[in-house]
Amino acid sequence: MPAFPLRALAVAGLLSLAACGDDAPPEATPSLTVSLATPTTREVVREVTASGAVAAWEEVSVGVELSGVRVSSVEVEVGSVVEQGDVLLRLDDRTLASQLAQADASVTEARTNLDTASRKATRVRALANDRMVSLQDAEEAEAARANAQARLNTAIASRDAARVQRDFTVVRAPVDGVVSARSVQPGQVVGAGGELLRLIRDGRLEWRAELAEGDLLLVSPGTTVQVDTPAGPVAGTVRRVAPALDAQSRTGTIYADLVEPGPLRAGMFAQGRIALGRAQALLIPNEAVVRRDGRAYVFIVDGENRVREQGIEVGPMHGEHIEVRSGLDSGARVVARGAGFLGDGDLVRVVDAPPPAGAAAANPDGNAAAASANGAHTDASAPAQGAGTAANPARSGTSTGGSGTARSAGSDDAATDAPAASP
């Protein structure tokens, strides 16, 4: 038989086989290999995350009580640690020292006058008793003694006031603390009422965190906090909870004492966590959660290895796991890895762990369905419907009834035998 008719018969046989294959539906091919995780319930620490400013527990403003006095020296710098009674600065006291000396002289004079008046009153009273002078003279002498005593008391009070004024020229620390601000220099003329130095009392800092009204109700004095810093968390304790909320922001403030502030400084803004106690929580791996359009989803695998997209409500993270508050049963089979590449209704292949790279290339049978299951995404219809291979353009093949196994025809003779093999 001529070669041309043989080739025509071979082509006709191939076309008939392809037509027969179109009648059978292709087998579904898994779109991705995934591993599963089962939600677990275990005890976790309930926490509220908040942000707030680090501030001084109590700031003490230091000034002077004199006006128009020149500063002679400043004994501290910003950051100096002082104790109560330590000298902070000194003022020029020459004028006040002179006034104190005058007051001392007035006291001495008044005391001398009192002694004289006392002796005179004693003599006149003795003469009056002997009827040598009138009683009026005795009473006048005693009145003069009383006036001298009063003038002495006035002089002493004036002297004490002058001494206090002189003592005001030495400014001392009212409490233990740390100097946080200084606005005075030697030679400066200062006035009463102005702030010259500022102290952080006892060096104590506190964290003032803003909480929403729902979270604020869960916090009470004595609750522990952890304030995050670049050097690690700093522990603290809630000292006071604000009794009222801000009318605009609807937030309230908690005040947490930081006994050992470490690297924290007043004026910093820090984030921290407030421990609310321990509770049981349902946890799944973080990578199992897919976030789309502001919502959280997981993919649940059914008995036929098809995935179903399920919306959930998530809570805080706990290490490599995240808390699920609602929307998921404890016995669900959740896709742990590869969830971001799935769609609702996809068929998947479930394994205990992801296959090693190159597993599809090592398949000796060349089975298209197995290679698709061991690799990532493949086209489920093309291997069953078409013919051909990308490895060698000169080779062609046909699909046998959608079974996924292709027979190759590499020569004219093989093509000639194909019709004879068909039923």
3D structure, described in words:
Helix 1 (3-22) crosses helix 7. The chain is α+β, with helices and mostly antiparallel strands and 423 residues long. The protein has seven helices and 23 strands. The protein has helices at residues 3-22, 94-129, 135-167, 213-216, 368-374, 382-385, 412-421; strands at 32-37, 40-56, 59-62, 69-74, 81-82, 87-91, 170-172, 177-182, 189-190, 197-201, 205-212, 224-227, 234-241, 251-258, 269-285, 290-292, 295-301, 307-318, 321-326, 334-337, 348-351, 396-399, 406-409. It has a six-stranded antiparallel beta barrel. The chain has a four-stranded antiparallel sheet with strand order 3-10-8-5, with no helix packed on it. The two termini are 22 Å apart. The protein has three domains: 21-38 and 289-423, Beta Barrel (conserved putative lor/sdh protein from methanococcus maripaludis s2 fold), CATH 2.40.420.20; 48-57 and 204-279, Elongation Factor Tu (Ef-tu), domain 3; 93-168, Orthogonal Bundle (Helix Hairpins). The longest helix has 36 residues, at 94-129. Residues 1-21 form the signal peptide. Keywords: Coiled coil, Signal.
Query: What is the makeup of the main sheet?
Result: 6 strands, antiparallel, barrel
Give the overall silhouette: rod-shaped
Helical coverage, percent range = 25-40%
CATH architecture of the largest domain: Beta Barrel
Number of DSSP helical runs: 7
Helix-strand category: alpha+beta
And the CATH topology of the largest domain?
Answer: conserved putative lor/sdh protein from methanococcus maripaludis s2 fold
End-to-end gap = 22 Å
